[in-house]
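pasting for the record
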Amino acid sequence: MFSKTALLAALLAAVASVTARPLDVWDPEITSPTAGVRWLPGDIHNITWDTSNAPADISEVSMIVLAKGGVEDIANPLAQGFDLRAGFVPVAIPLSTVSGDDYAIVLFGDSGNLSPTFTIL
């Protein structure tokens, strides 16, 4: 015979499994920056991505970081906590950014999406 607590726990688990929907993994294309763009430290730019195929259920966790030479600076996000469905977020390029032609933007949400490489002067 089941105890009332065990029966209630089993019922709650069954309801949760029916109502909880897994999030769809979404890998939107970053549309800005594009390859060959040149930015300056201190500039503010909109990072944009294609939202035309966004699923109904996507992650509420979001972050944009700068990557140089394939190394992501996760400790210093350029933006975080924005709505992935918006399709853009403005970011400021840190004044301390060293010049290079091997930068990329990484958009985190459901997955990590990498922009084409661009230059920071």
